[in-house]
Amino acid sequence: MGKYRLIEKLGEGGYGTIWKAINKWIDEVVAIKRLHNKKNDGFYESLFKEEEKSLRALQHPNIVSLRDTYEEGGHLHIVLEYMDSDLWRIIKNRKEPSLSRTVQRLCFKILKALEYMHGLGYCHRDLKPENLLLKGNKIKISDFGFAINMKEKMEKNEPLDPNVGTIAYKAPELLLKSSSYDFAIDMWSLGVIIAQFYGLEPIFGSRSDWRNQIYNICCVIGCPNEKTWPEGLKLAESLDY
């Protein structure tokens, strides 16, 4: 930590803590994710490694930049570009829906980042307002712990883990435990985020049970049928839903 001086704790989760800090060597403000002792957190250690791998491969104006990684005292650290806030806080503090022009501007930037990511084969798999960071008029995608190189998985014909993402923003194929989904799951999540700009709450609610979440989705946009989504009906049948 001789290189960095901690300023304040920004948050804490199951994985560990995130800090605002300053790189004393170049006088740059950064964000540092500090993982709980890696001996006790194999799952979160794997997420950290996936995040590092993805961020090293992705360089885009609307994707948060990786600055550094290091290990100290049995803890893994990821040093990231510092951003002032996140979209969840902005929406939470609003009393009126966002202006259409603001939504268009922000979503255009997110779509450009997704176009770039998907073109390189990467799927985020956990898009939500908390993972969209803001600073001034900039917006950047962050938190790549669930990200994978989808093209590599497809080429190897490997099954995909559906246990990713956050339930309010999960695509139906993830809720129905599909192991062969594609980049469309990121687009679904973005659609839910766009609706939240206007409704200020997740459009399908946020149920803890996947069955109730599917029910909520069908209540809002209707039930699929053999013409609109035959694959979905097969997934539901396989789960006796």
Question: What does this molecule look like?
Answer:
By secondary structure, the chain is α+β, with helices and mostly antiparallel strands. It folds into two domains: 4-81, Phosphorylase Kinase, domain 1; 85-238, Transferase(Phosphotransferase), domain 1 (Orthogonal Bundle), CATH 1.10.510. It has eight helices and ten strands. It has helices at 42-57, 87-92, 100-119, 150-155, 172-175, 184-199, 210-221, 230-238, and strands spanning 4-12, 16-23, 28-35, 66-72, 75-81, 85-86, 122-123, 132-135, 138-141, 148-149. The strands form three sheets. The chain has a five-stranded antiparallel sheet, with helices on one face. A hairpin with a 3-residue loop joins β1 (4-12) and β2 (16-23). α3 (100-119) packs antiparallel against α6. The protein is globular, with a radius of gyration of 19 Å. The N and C termini lie far apart (52 Å). The model has no long low-confidence stretch (mean pLDDT 91).
Descriptors for this entry?
241 residues, alpha+beta, Phosphorylase Kinase, domain 1, five-stranded antiparallel beta sheet, three-stranded antiparallel beta sheet, 10 strands
Structure summary:
The chain has 241 residues and is an alpha+beta fold. The protein has helices at residues 42-57, 87-92, 100-119, 150-155, 172-175, 184-199, 210-221, 230-238; strands at 4-12, 16-23, 28-35, 66-72, 75-81, 85-86, 122-123, 132-135, 138-141, 148-149.
